[in-house]
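Just curious. Protein, please.
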Amino acid sequence: MSRRGNCLDNALIESFFGHLKNYIINRSCGSIEEVRERGGSYISYYNCERGRWNLKKMTPKQCRDHLIAA
């Protein structure tokens, strides 16, 4: 997260945390370990499986690998 007043920088991370909270809250967790496990699985899904329209339907990982190769 960036310093105060950079709403465009903070918007991306705030959106991610909002999606993460919704994902975890909508599933009942019995312990903190389950929360950590579900959080880790969501982060993996977010980076490696979930395509983004503004990245031409590529995942963030695919986009990063594409940019490194170019």
